[in-house]
């Protein structure tokens, strides 16, 4: 083991040397750089490495076009800085799982009873008085009781261990599949590509946006109103503003809460913040090997077991910190939590009772109660037999005490112990284990992978389910079905024929097409339909994809508009978040005018509008009376049809009097309303039946959404 560890260290030294030689910077230096924060970090970056451009040169990266797709270059980076994956801890062996299963108190009681029963079955007192009472000699079958208990225990242990072993393998397979499916946007050869997270290397330029969980450590190259939630690392819930000139360092495992940016990757895998946390938790293979060597050395030096088995336990916030937005991250959380449990088991040294589920706790309590009852009855039985014998022999017959009576007393004691053994319910754990194993198998047929048997029982105790609306109860395929534009309310515009009938002035149409194309994430786009499908594939934010579909329906080309206004040319971006409920992008138009496009929840955006485009494309005043009328005649009817209402607006700024872009309240105001779109997200066909089954089972299903209350009510009614 020690030899293997040495080899690993040698490899690391070679890698560091190669990095220093080829790139002019090693991962040790990058790791130290990532430890700095704020003003100190910016100073170190500028003075030691010559700023972002100097760092880019040392890493042989073009900060605009990204890496080339040269295989030899990627291989060199992998050798120098490592791969973006954390080697998992080896799974428990089947024998270890059997030992874990044996730690159930009920099974321990059963084993003790089986041993007693087995031992007593071969004990026969050899006394004449006793022999006279015996019937003609028969085959000894008393051992069957003890053997039956042992068989029941073995079956329970094997079923539990085999289930955990197979589910562990399936879970790891599923986890690796999900990790391989999880992709991230990187710039290579000046083209934005989606690549698997594990293929990200040091020197890559990543595009990050609202909602992303950072897969590696890096430094901001270019940003738009970027705010990060670092609570997973620091415990502080306040959002941290990041900018290339103030605090440019981004850490893996943190969430993008606002804005977008481009990031130069500086640390991946075990050298990133997430990798270091995994090491502290003892959740990596390498760490496990090192710990084994260390423990052996310490034990050889005669240290106390407690010291040899010392372990650093990271705060719970770290273990649960790895994000909610991606399935793979959730699975990763479970893995971390499990590794913590395993770590505790591995180092405990002695007998450790694992945390029991509710049913196991109740069964253990029942088994103990039955044991107490059995013990009471056994003691009473022995006392009654002794009293009866004593009264008959010593009082009625007047016999004197002699040693021949000892065998009779032993026989009564054996009878009492037999009563106690019979009272213990050996079939109870077996029945529960087999029924839970059957439940797991049934759930597998429903495409639900249950990792531990007792999880079935935990789910069986659920009384309430809180469900998100978008994408869970609905299909998450957004389509614009109604639109209010140029003082007219159009319906059924999802029909290609109907959408072409919409007649609006050219000026309004130009603003509408530009407003939607520019003021949406450039990661949102429509791709050609997959095989056997007719509808375009929506990639990115589904609401924005629905609006882009409307642009295409009106005969616009959002790609051409985006090429005209590249992200680097944006003056300022106010990204969407759950507080703002709108998004604004400021651009400079070809005629040098500065224009801001805004889109968002209709009630919020309309309140900021002071003018509106009429049927001739002219700007006319928009009063509070007009607002109330639009809400009653357009927004509420759309919401009652279960539509999400989005308002598109804009504002022009005089080029000689530009505002302070950080003063959002002043900037995003005095808007001109262009249109209101009603977007439909159909309910999944299987949802109403599923909710009806939940209600029949006594489970309350609640829908959680940030939508308009009328939209929410309409969807809730459709779902039942």
From TrEMBL:
Residue stretches spanning the membrane: 105-123, 143-162, 366-389, 409-440
Keywords assigned: ATP-binding, Calcium, Calcium transport, Copper, Copper transport, Ion transport, Magnesium, Membrane, Metal-binding, Nucleotide-binding, Translocase, Transmembrane, Transmembrane helix, Transport
Subcellular localization: Endomembrane system
Gene Ontology molecular function terms on file: ATP binding; ATP hydrolysis activity; metal ion binding; P-type calcium transporter activity; PDZ domain binding
Topological relation to the membrane, as annotated: Multi-pass membrane protein
GO-annotated biological processes: copper ion transport; regulation of cytosolic calcium ion concentration
Pfam families linked: Cation_ATPase, Cation_ATPase_N, E1-E2_ATPase
One of the record's GO cellular component terms: plasma membrane
Keyword match Repeat: no
UniProt keyword Nucleus present: no
Superkingdom assignment: Eukaryota
Chief place where the protein resides: membrane
Domain Cation-transporting P-type ATPase N-terminal residue range list: 48-122
NCBIfam families in alphabetical order: ATPase_P-type (TIGR01494)
Protein name (database record): Cation-transporting P-type ATPase N-terminal domain-containing protein
């Amino acid at each position: 083991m020690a030899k293997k560890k040495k080899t690993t260290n040698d490899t690391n030294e070679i890698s560091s040397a190669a990095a220093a030689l080829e790139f002019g910077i090693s991962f040790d230096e990058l790791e130290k750089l990532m430890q700095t924060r704020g003003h100190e970090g910016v100073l170190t970056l500028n003075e030691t490495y010559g700023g972002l451009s100097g760092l880019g040169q040392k890493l042989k990266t073009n900060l605009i076009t990204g890496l080339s797709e040269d295989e030899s270059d990627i291989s060199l980076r992998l050798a120098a800085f490592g791969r973006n994956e954390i080697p998992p801890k080896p799974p428990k062996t089947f024998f270890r799982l059997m030992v874990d299963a044996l730690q159930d108190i009920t099974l321990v009681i059963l084993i003790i009873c089986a041993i007693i029963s087995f031992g007593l079955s071969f004990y026969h007192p050899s006394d004449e008085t006793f022999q006279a009472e015996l019937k003609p000699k028969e085959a000894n079958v008393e051992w069957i009781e003890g053997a039956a208990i042992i068989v029941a225990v073995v079956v329970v242990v094997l079923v539990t261990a085999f289930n955990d072993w197979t589910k562990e393998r399936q879970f790891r397979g599923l986890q690796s599949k999900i990790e391989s499916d999880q992709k991230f946007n990187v710039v290579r050869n000046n083209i934005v590509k989606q690549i698997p997270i594990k293929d990200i290397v040091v020197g890559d330029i990543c595009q990050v946006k609202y909602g992303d969980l950072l897969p590696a450590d890096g430094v901001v190259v270019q940003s738009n109103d970027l705010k990060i939630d670092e609570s997973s690392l620091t415990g502080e819930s306040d959002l941290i503003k990041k900018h290339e000139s103030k605090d440019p360092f981004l850490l893996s495992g943190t969430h993008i809460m606002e804005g977008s940016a481009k990031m130069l990757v500086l640390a991946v895998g075990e050298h990133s913040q997430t990798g270091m946390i995994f090491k502290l938790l003892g959740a990596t293979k390498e760490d496990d090997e090192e710990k084994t060597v260390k423990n052996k050395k310490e034990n050889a030096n005669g240290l106390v077991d407690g010291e040899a088995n010392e372990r650093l336990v990271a705060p719970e916030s770290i273990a649960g910190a790895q994000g909610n937005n991606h399935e793979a991250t959730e699975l990763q959380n479970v893995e971390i939590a499990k590794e913590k449990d395993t770590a505790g088991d591995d180092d405990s040294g002695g007998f450790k009772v694992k945390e029991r589920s509710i049913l196991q706790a109740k069964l253990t309590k029942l088994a103990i109660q039955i044991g107490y009852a059995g013990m009471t009855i056994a003691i009473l039985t022995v006392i009654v037999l002794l009293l009866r014998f004593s009264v008959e022999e010593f009082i009625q017959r007047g016999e004197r005490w002699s040693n021949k009576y000892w065998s009779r007393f032993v026989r009564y004691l054996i009878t009492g112990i037999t009563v106690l053994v019979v009272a213990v319910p050996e079939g109870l754990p077996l029945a529960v284990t087999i029924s839970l194993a059957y439940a797991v198998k049934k759930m597998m047929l429903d495409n639900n992978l249950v990792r531990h048997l007792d999880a079935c029982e935990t789910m069986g105790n659920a009384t309430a389910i809180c469900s998100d609306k978008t994408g869970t109860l609905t299909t998450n395929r957004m389509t614009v079905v109604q639109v209010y534009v140029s003082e007219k309310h159009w319906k059924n515009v999802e029909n290609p024929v109907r959408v072409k009938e919409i007649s609006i002035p050219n000026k309004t149409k130009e603003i509408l097409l530009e407003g939607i194309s520019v003021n949406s994430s450039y990661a949102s786009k429509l791709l050609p339909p997959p095989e056997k499908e007719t509808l375009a594939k929506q990639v990115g934010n589904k609401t924005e994809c629905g609006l882009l579909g409307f642009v295409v329906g009106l005969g616009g080309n959002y790609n051409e508009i985006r090429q005209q206004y590249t992200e680097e040319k944006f003056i300022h971006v106010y990204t969407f978040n759950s507080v703002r409920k709108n998004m604004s992008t400021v651009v400079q138009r070809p005629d040098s005018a500065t224009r801001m496009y805004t889109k968002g929840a209709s009630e919020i955006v309309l309140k900021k509008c002071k003018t509106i485009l009429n049927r001739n494309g002219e700007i006319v005043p928009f009063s509070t009376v007009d607002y109330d009328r639009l809400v009653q005649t357009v927004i509420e009817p759309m919401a009652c049809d279960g539509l999400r209402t989005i308002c598109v607006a804009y504002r022009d700024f005089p080029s000689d009097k530009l505002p302070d872009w950080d003063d959002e309240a002043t900037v995003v105001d005095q808007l001109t309303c262009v249109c209101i779109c009603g977007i439909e997200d159909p309910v999944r066909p299987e949802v109403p039946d599923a909710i009806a089954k939940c209600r029949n089972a006594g489970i309350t299903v609640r829908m959680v959404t940030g939508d308009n209350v009328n939209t929410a009510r309409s969807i809730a009614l459709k779902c039942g």
